[in-house]
Specification:
This protein has about 160 residues and is mainly β. The protein has two helices and twelve strands. The strands form five sheets. It has a three-stranded antiparallel beta sheet with strand order 3-9-8, with no helix packed on it. The protein has a three-stranded antiparallel beta sheet with strand order 4-6-5, with no helix packed on it. A two-stranded antiparallel ribbon has the order 1-2. The longest helix has 9 residues. The chain starts with a helix and ends in an 8-residue tail after the last helix.
């Protein structure tokens, strides 16, 4: 059970009172909503360092440019059916649907990333789960093909 007083790193800034960083046994560091948020809520207006370096906690803001050292954005979990989207023009995290208090905040990594720092097996649990997560321009790696084939998810021609 998520407990902001025990597990989360909560900023005192009033603009960040909607989110907290938590440690989840399944995914590691993640972001959770601190209270119920309706669809369309701007959960975070973020800033950080922008440059060409791709890292585990950076996110692509435009071709060849990534943002890092953000308070929350670098710790968002992937979801194939995400509850949020990143608006990279306005540097905002926006709820795509209602989000319950303590719910993990998710985005689809392929929505912002041309290439991922590291491809990985997905365990999001969504009915539409793709099984292996890549950037939108990444070919599925050999490890991904093997993983998808083992799960019976490998499409023909992959």
């Amino acid at each position: 059970m998520f407990s902001p007083s025990l597990n989360a790193l909560v900023c005192d800034d009033a603009a960040t009172e909607l989110l907290a960083i938590d440690h989840d046994a399944l995914v590691g560091l993640c972001v959770r909503a601190l209270r119920d948020c309706p669809e369309g809520t701007v959960l975070d207006r973020f800033s950080g360092e922008i440059g060409p370096q791709v890292s585990q906690h950076s996110l692509q803001v435009r071709d060849g440019q990534h943002i890092s050292n953000t308070q929350f954005i670098g710790y968002l979990s992937h979801g194939c059916d995400p509850n949020c989207r990143l608006d990279m023009a306005n540097f905002e995290l926006v709820a795509l649907r209602p989000i319950a208090a303590n719910e993990r905040v998710t985005i689809d990594y392929a929505a912002t990333e041309d290439r991922l720092h590291i491809q990985f097996a997905c365990s999001c649990g969504a009915p539409s789960c793709r099984g292996w997560i890549t950037g939108r321009n990444d070919p599925v790696s050999e490890a991904g093909r093997q993983h998808l084939t083992a799960r019976g998810l490998c499409p023909a021609g992959l």
